[in-house]
Amino acid sequence: MTDCNQRSDGIYAALEAKPGERPGWSKYQLLDLPWEDVLVTHVLCYLPLRHLVSLQRVSKSFRSLIQIYLSNCRSFDPEQTGPHIPKEAFCSMLCDNKILQSLSVHGCCDWITNEELLPVIGQNQQLQRVDLHGCLYLTRHALVAVALGCPRLQHLGLAHCEWVDNLALRSLADHCTELRTLDLTACRQVRDEAVCYGAARWPLLHSLSVAINANITDTTVEEVAKRCRELEHLDLTGCLRVRNESIRTVAEYCPKLQSLKVNHCHNVSEASLGILRRRNVQIDVEPPLQRALVLLQNVVGFAPSINLQI
């Protein structure tokens, strides 16, 4: 059992035990300890957030304590709260917080709108990481709010947010110049001009996904390669208009590249990918001969134990 689990179990035992059963607690209750200096800093941090929310129901004092704790949280994500967060709980947990550095609302994607998100963005200007993955009911105004309200933003997830458009992305590029990672997977309204505009303003970018977007062409890939020399990870999955020429540009201008995804990019071949393979870049498409061997195994039904030698 880890130290964290042991401490968490100890806290639960203390909370559930009767006063007479608590060693050394005959005169004092848990809430007699200093709240901000001890309970918030050294005790509540070991409890899952979803349990702390439940703890608010014990008494008014516990509710006040938990609200103080929540107002001092620097991170909010589904791993702490569980996969599905009710609207009332979300609004209650974040209403007093003004120091968030990381915000993920993936657990709220089934219902969250601008009405719930914008107040949180507006009062947390220290945000460095925002994940809006799959939030269908937001609008472009949410991205503009992030751009205007989060000047220190470094990581932004917008996968499957089809409301993201070129104008909102340009606003992001104008105001968030420290961006390191950007996920635009399946943002189908986004076109070359907006990504190119951003690439010129994101010299520190090291991870970019423009996957599942038929609007993206060699123009974007070449501009990103030339402008974002720190690039380490590039996802072009399903970008049907990307060709070998731009992949060669990536190979030339991105010496730090570690991984490239080009699955379903039918105009990209080994002629350009081979250059990156020789640099040990991880590519999600097997070399042609390896693919042929896999297909042969499937067709003739070779046993998995058979090892085909090239």
TrEMBL record:
Domain named F-box: residues: 30-67
Domain of life: Eukaryota
SUPFAM superfamilies: RNI-like
Residue stretches making up the F-box/LRR-repeat protein 15-like leucin rich repeat domain: 108-278
InterPro entries reported in the protein's UniProt record: F-box_dom (IPR001810), F-box_LRR-repeat (IPR050648), FBXL15_LRR (IPR057207), Leu-rich_rpt_Cys-con_subtyp (IPR006553), LRR_dom_sf (IPR032675)
Keywords linked to the UniProt accession: Cytoplasm, Leucine-rich repeat, Repeat, Ubl conjugation pathway
Pfam families per record: DUF7885, F-box
Main location as per UniProt: cytoplasm
GO CC, one annotated term: cytoplasm
Ranges annotated as spanning the membrane: none
Pathway(s) per entry: Protein modification; protein ubiquitination
Keyword match Repeat: yes
Localization per Swiss-Prot or TrEMBL: Cytoplasm
Family: Belongs to the FBXL15 family.
Quaternary structure and partners: Part of the SCF (SKP1-CUL1-F-box) E3 ubiquitin-protein ligase complex SCF(FBXL15).
Protein role: Substrate recognition component of a SCF (SKP1-CUL1-F-box protein) E3 ubiquitin-protein ligase complex which mediates the ubiquitination and subsequent proteasomal degradation of target proteins. Acts as a positive regulator of the BMP signaling pathway. Required for dorsal/ventral pattern formation.
Protein name: F-box/LRR-repeat protein 15
Organism: Silurus meridionalis
